[in-house]
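Quarterly update, task 2.4: 2-acetamido-2-deoxy-beta-D-glucopyranose-bound model.
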Amino acid sequence: METTVQPYMSILFLTLLNFSTFLHPSLSDDPFCNPEDKKTLLRFKKSFTNSQYILLSWDPITDCCNWNHVDCGDTNRITSLRFVGYNLSGQIPPQIGNLPFLETINFDNVPGLLGPIAPSIANLTKLRYLIITRTNVSGPIPEFIGSLKKIEFINLSYNRLTGQIPKSIGYLPKLGGLRLDYNTLTGSIPESFGDFKKEDFYLYMSHNKLSGKIPLSMEKKDFTYIDLSENRLEGDVVPLFRSKKKMELVDLSGNLLRFDLSKVEFPSSLVSLDLSENKVFGILPEQLTELTGLKSFNVSYNKLCGKIPVGGNLQKFGESAYFHNCCLCGSPLESCLSLAKILTFGLCLIECILSRYEPF
Ligand SMILES: *[C@@H]1O[C@H](CO)[C@@H](O)[C@H](O)[C@H]1NC(C)=O
Ligand SMILES: *[C@@H]1O[C@H](CO)[C@@H](O)[C@H](O)[C@H]1NC(C)=O
Ligand SMILES: *[C@@H]1O[C@H](CO)[C@@H](O)[C@H](O)[C@H]1NC(C)=O
Ligand SMILES: *[C@@H]1O[C@H](CO)[C@@H](O)[C@H](O)[C@H]1NC(C)=O
Ligand SMILES: *[C@@H]1O[C@H](CO)[C@@H](O)[C@H](O)[C@H]1NC(C)=O
């Protein structure tokens, strides 16, 4: 009995399946895109002047989950927008705020992208990754970023952002990495930047115009990577290194930092340290020879003095890691006993001593 029914059943089933795939060409393999999201994306497309070629696949008769540059994950809602190296020209369209399931925004190397970070992004409470890099986006970093509590990673490097860094960023509970490097940000680093919750945090804020002291609160945080180079930061960073276990990369070069290097306790986890082009004084501590993992090191263009300790990797870094100081000497620089050194030593010593007491 069963054996005679089964073939008819499967024929009927196959017919139904064919019929439904005819109605919805993609139902069989992909989820059908939410109509509101589709409408929003089509408006988003219209707001760029040159999108007809870049967004050729954004055709209203097809399933928008199958379009290029978007992704629906396992749902029928748009969860990701990605443009890497596609030169869309215009502003970030306000419609972006009407894609409520968006988790990833990625505009990378889109030089035609102009204007501010769209205020409507404030609506995207599910956002986890905000990447707007290598664009001509300008204006301030909006305060609302601090209320997107699901954010895990922000990369806003290489744009034209100006103004102060909102302190609310420091309170984002899931943030694990922040890149704001290569903009024109001003003001001081917010006190809240010592409150980042995640372990293995990385912070890149180089090549801006940040000024003032590095906040005391940040001295407690064990940053894995911290790059604050090429700013106008001042003060003493000795406590930043104290009792740290994870610190691997520290780049503070090209600032106005003034502290006694002989007081620094270097974490044994250090791989890369750049303190060049500051006003660092004192001697190189012997402890530097114990940093066996140190691969990159630079203390050039400071006010350091005395003999470079011998051992560890210190002699491997080459002259340019040490040159342009007051009176550093010994391998890989010239011997501390050379005639030229002795002649200039007196003058250097005076300069070094004065550099400690130079008024701010
Ligand atoms: C990107 O597009 C803008 C505006 O159309 C144009 O001025 C710019 O030269 C383009 N950049 C590249 C790298 O193609
Ligand atoms: C955007 O920035 C690039 C350099 O980063 C520049 O070549 C380009 O002309 C700028 N303007 C536009 C409208 O793309
Ligand atoms: C924010 O989302 C709501 C609901 O989806 C929508 O009505 C509103 O237009 C959005 N606001 C902006 C600025 O996009
Ligand atoms: C952030 O953007 C910069 C510039 O495009 C890029 O070099 C860097 O790899 C990005 N960082 C991450 C972690 O994606
Ligand atoms: C150290 O930094 C100085 C100044 O930026 C640079 O000229 C030099 O090449 C660097 N040397 C090394 C070994 O990184």
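Highlight for this quarter: Residues 111-112, 136 surround 2-acetamido-2-deoxy-beta-D-glucopyranose (ligand 2) (CB under 6 Å).
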